[in-house]
Amino acid sequence: MAEPKVNELMEKVVSLCKRRGFVYQSSEIYGGINGFWDYGPLGAELKRNVKDLWWTSMTRRRDDVVGLEATIIMHPQIWRASGHVDTFSDPMADCLLTRKRFRADQIDPQSGTAYHYSGARDAETGKMVAEAYAVLLPAGKPPESARKVATQYYQARGLKQVELEGERTEKVENSQRFNPENGSLLTEPRPFNLMFKTYVGPVADEDNVAYLRPETAQAIFAQFKNVLETSRQKVPFGIAQVGKAFRNEVTPRNFTFRSREFEQMELEFFIPPDEAVEALTGSVAKPAAPGHPGAPQRNWGWQLWHQYWVEERIRFYDSIGLPRTSLEEYWQKPDELAHYARATVDLLFKFPFGTQELEGIAARSDFDLSQHERCSGKSQGVFDEELRTAWGKLDEATRQRLSDSYFQHRQKYLLKAGVPAEQAARDAKEDAEGLAKGQYIPHVIEPSAGVDRLILGLLTNAYSEVTTTDDKGKTETRVILRFHPKVAPIKVGVFPLLKNKPELVAKAREVNELLRAHMMSFYDDAGAIGRRYARQDEAGTPFCVTIDFDTLGETPELKDTVTLRYRDDGRQERMPISALLGFLLERIR
Ligand code: ATP
């Protein structure tokens, strides 16, 4: 089997996506809109399957996670409390010549000779433009190339007969200040807030500004208390949400990998602070060995919960056809961590364009709920009667130690949040006294995954080509999408052997009706059977069934049996119709 070369793979996947109706460019008939993608018939099924699998494994199959479906537009204060209004930005820089925009931190570093100019004069009119400009040339390129680009720059500023002034050169190494495509100097990087703004109500002024959510997580924090009070859950427990998120990415790219509108699947799993765990259980269990730590225990501290969720997420990917070996764990270094995060693991997948983030699993301390408590003035703490009782039974030294530790943690948070020192000390003392009475603000572990990136991962992982040669020596290359049956958009193709035999067609339709009540099945009677198989292979359909004359009883012992064909090896076997549904359900769920 020929595996396509990595650099070609993306192109092939993108073209297959369009050809077979997985993904189209949004608004294509008007030339498209950068960073927005639509999912066609097969893509919509694939996406729905992925979201359902996540939802089922995260909520329905667990006692300790419940769901939420919140609005996309929320009170703008939420985004002030979360820090998004002030800090959710990427550095951007524009090409001074073409105005093309770049993510300043993602420009490939370049080396060479920079040609600087202090300005230029119009030889005809004497008009002067006293603006400095520069062009970077890679080693070996003649200075004329730089002068040509600089001339265009000054021409765009109104000069006709450009005479460059004050040329000087400088050796430059690993610079991100120049446009890699034409060498032109870029503007200074400046922060660009990624949130899409809109206005709520008929008046478009600053008082009515709202934002399209850049992540689904904040709604979970904002509704934490409501969910706690209405779901009969008790910390530790989680709230899950799947939904759209919007980021005005400076440079959307790599197909759907970095889009401006995308979907997230996020879980916020709330846990007690380690001090409460110790008071309740006498100790705080920490990770002892790599791998899955097993079923959750009451004495787990945040590190074990974090490890648990990293491993749970890897198991999930493994179960839907992205094997462990296709993923990498990247533990963010202390200087890469958000200031509130205690640890973050990025799960990376080997995309054809590089190994990149599929999901982040962050231990976010009690930052989020604390922020919402401070900014809304509404308590986000929980009360645990058991903790209050357990605290009463601790010896004085343990009480003091746990209380001090909690005080330190709260004080650090408050100071970072900008609360004046005296007040921070007072509030932190109150928090520590609250802990002794069974109150605390939960900490959180957040596994946050992108649906679209996962779809892209599944597509590139499933893509394979098979080349066959027939008796006449003619070779043919066919595409097979080797999706796991759980995610495959179509689970089964149902074919009558011949289209013009009403008995075959009727029986095939009957089998299709039987199956479609339980799964996505696809009836097809057009063309030779081999072509029908090939079409389903390309759509990633794991099974096909063919209804032939034996099904109708031509060979009496084969009556009411069908041929079942496996996508991955082309194997075929005979199966009674009565066994078909059970066989398929076992494999697709
Ligand atoms: P990146 O560093 O790649 O921009 P991020 O760390 O900002 O990602 P998070 O804020 O942690 O991403 O979002 C969680 C998940 O949401 C990511 O792991 C990714 O799967 C998905 N995601 C984030 N931004 C985008 C985007 N622009 N397009 C598609 N998916 C995205």
Please characterize this protein's 3D structure.
The protein is of the alpha+beta class and 589 residues long. The chain is built from 18 helices and 29 strands. It has a seven-stranded mixed β-sheet, with helices on both faces. A five-stranded mixed β-sheet has the order 26-25-27-28-29, sandwiched between helices. Strands 5-4-12 form a three-stranded antiparallel β-sheet. Helix 8 crosses helix 11 (385-392), helix 8 runs antiparallel to helix 12 (396-416) and helix 12 packs antiparallel against helix 13. The mean pLDDT is 96. Residues 215, 247, 249, 258-259, 262, 264, 357-360, 448-450, 452-453 line the site of adenosine-5'-triphosphate.
If you compute it from the alpha carbons, what radius of gyration comes out, rounded to the nearest whole angstrom?
A: 30 Å
Strand content: 25-35%
Q: What characteristic shape results from the CA principal axes?
A: flat
In CATH terms, the superfamily of the largest domain is Bira Bifunctional Protein, Domain 2
Q: Largest sheet, order of strands side by side?
A: 3-15-16-22-19-18-17
Poorly predicted regions are none
**Count of separate structural domains:** 3
End-to-end C-alpha gap: 29 Å
Give the overall average pLDDT. 96
> From the helix content, strand content and strand pairing, which structural class follows?
alpha+beta
Percent helix among the residues? Answer: 25-40%
Described by strand count, sense and barrel closure, the largest sheet is: 7 strands, mixed
Total number of β-strand segments? 29
Task: Please tell me the CATH architecture of the largest domain by its name.
Answer: 2-Layer Sandwich
**Which CATH top level class of the largest domain fits?**
Alpha Beta
Ligand catalogue: adenosine-5'-triphosphate
CATH fold description of the largest domain: BirA Bifunctional Protein, domain 2
The total of helices stands at 18
